[in-house]
Amino acid sequence: MSHENAHDGPGNRLLVSVWVYLLILTAIEVFLAYLQVFRTEVMLLILMILSVIKAGLIIAYFMHLRFEKLSLILSIIPAGMLVIALLFAFFPDSYRVLELRP
Amino acid sequence: MADVNQQMIPVSGWDGGVFPYSIGHKKLGMWLFLLSDSMTFSALLIGYSYVRVANVNWPKPFHLWPSIAMATLMTLILLSSSLTMVMGVAASRRGDHSATIRYMLLTMLGGVGFIVLHTNEWMGLIREGVRLWENPWGVPLFGATFFALTGLHMLHVASGVIYLGVIASGVRSQRFGPEHVEITGLYWHFVDLVWMFIFPMLYLLSARQ
User: Fold this and answer.
1) What torsion, rounded to 10 degrees, do the Cα atoms B158, B159, B162, B166 define?
2) Given an 8 Å threshold on Cβ–Cβ distance, is B64 in contact with A64?
3) Of B55, B196, B209, the CB nearest to A54
């Protein structure tokens, strides 16, 4: 990729290295599932951390958001995170359902 | 893209003008759609987690071979199709129409491959007796959550392949420019991103011990 539009977005080499990082993270996830050394809860936590990193890489580089104006980033990311966080408001109920079961 | 926008944006003191985000309305529309779509998928995934916590002995039916291996292959295909998509976006920005179309066709091929492998996976599970309301391993909700989540995702992949085909034929007839290709890319990467959550939560956490 030429230098004139380097500021306009990621170059091909960067995109390929992002792809390689995504593959490595996926390989770690599958390897952990193969090992089966963690309890489900711990496994969920590890997998979610890795997946959020992967999602961040995809959004920042593949979806190009890192190279957009800050106003767009601040309009989209906090709104999405807030709504997803609000969905968790119902979550404690699931433990109550578990205890109500005969 | 930036130079096109700079031509359209009137000079203004506050660096925003009539384009506060410095992107076209189509791209902003796609971002807002993806935001709402991410809410749909996160609601489904959190709903799945909810019923999984509320049911003891959630089934863990997936063997490393073939289920997990196939799902890993599907992840690889989807990630690679995302790479060919960004290459297509870069090619269209350079104005290289034939390379754009070639990369978009490769992306579509990845999408079709994903659908074929996943349909095969579904048929295998259905043969084993998994239904929306029952399955051979216990908690009946397993089938409903699995088929709803992967089904909605597969629907997104299938519509993405059709979307890519429409845009690629538009690039060929020079009706659609680089912005259209880039917006299609946004959608395709989002489908990839959703799979990055469905794959660990549905497959890896249900791997047989």
Assistant:
1) -160
2) no
3) B196
Tell me if B166 sits within 8 A of B20, measured CB to CB: no
In sequence order, which residues have a C-beta less than 8 Å from that of residue B134 and are 6 or more positions away?
B140, B143
- What is the identity of the amino acid at B68? I
For A72, the closest of B21, B75, B76 (CB atoms) is B21
CA distances for B143 relative to B94, B128, B130, angstroms? 47, 12, 6
Contacts of A42 by beta carbon, 8 Å cutoff, 6+ apart: none
Assembly ipTM: 0.89
Tell me the pTM: 0.90
Cβ distance of B200 and A51 shorter than 8 Å = yes
Confidence of residue A98 (pLDDT cuts 50, 70, 90): confident
H or E, element range at B22: none
